C-alpha cells in the first residue's frame, strides 16, 4: 500500500497499536460507566408557532365544540405550536458515539476519506482482475 495513494490508511496503520489499546479502554469504560456531555439549554432553531392551516382551524373548532371558540381565534391570530419544534433544558446528556467514532476523532482519522480509499482499492483490484482475465482469455 502506497502512503501517497492511501494517506488515511497510512495514518491508521501508524496508530494501530495505540488505537487497539485506547479502543479496549473505551469498550471497558462504556461497559461500566455512562459517558455524558454537558449541553446548554437550547432548541432546534425552528419557530415555536407556525401559521394554522384551515384544516388545523377546523380540527381545533371540532375539539373545542365551536368554529368561533377562543381556541380557534387564538390559533387564527397567533398560529399553532409547531410539532417539529424541539427544545431541551441544560444538563448532562448521554454521549451516543460508537467506539470507532471516538477513535477516529482522537487519532484524527477522516472516516469518509477512509471509505473513499477503500472504494479506490476495490476499483484497482477489480481493474487488475479484469485486465488479467482479458490477457488470459
Secondary structure elements and pairings:
Blueprint: H1 7-14, H2 16-32, E1 36-39, E2 42-43, E3 49-50, H3 54-64, H4 70-78, E4 80-81, E5 87-88, E6 91-94, H5 99-106, H6 111-136
Antiparallel strand pairs: 1-6, 2-5, 3-4
**Helical segment count:** 6
Global shape: elongated
Low-confidence stretches: none
Cα-to-Cα separation, first versus last residue: 28 Å
The run of helices and strands is HHEEEHHEEEHH
Q: Tally of extended strands?
A: 6
Strand content: 5-15%
Main sheet summary: 2 strands, antiparallel
User: What order do the strands of the largest sheet run in, or round the barrel if closed?
Assistant: 1-6
Supply the helix-strand structural class. mainly alpha
Cα Rg = 28 Å
Kindly state the percentage of residues in helix: 55-70%
Quaternary structure annotation = single chain
Overall mean confidence score, pLDDT: 92
Amino acid at each position: 500500500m502506497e502512503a501517497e495513494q492511501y494517506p488515511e490508511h497510512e495514518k491508521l496503520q501508524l496508530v494501530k497499536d495505540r488505537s487497539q489499546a485506547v479502543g479496549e479502554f473505551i469498550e471497558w469504560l462504556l461497559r461500566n460507566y455512562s459517558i455524558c456531555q454537558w449541553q446548554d439549554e437550547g432548541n432546534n432553531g425552528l419557530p415555536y408557532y407556525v401559521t394554522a392551516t384551515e384544516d388545523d382551524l377546523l380540527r381545533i373548532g371540532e375539539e373545542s365544540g365551536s368554529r368561533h371558540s377562543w381556541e380557534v381565534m387564538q390559533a387564527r391570530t397567533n398560529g399553532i405550536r409547531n410539532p417539529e419544534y424541539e427544545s431541551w433544558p441544560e444538563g448532562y446528556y448521554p454521549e451516543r458515539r460508537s467506539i470507532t467514532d471516538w477513535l477516529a476523532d482522537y487519532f484524527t482519522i477522516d472516516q469518509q476519506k477512509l471509505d473513499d480509499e477503500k472504494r479506490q482499492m476495490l476499483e484497482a483490484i477489480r481493474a487488475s482482475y479484469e485486465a488479467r482475465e482479458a490477457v488470459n482469455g
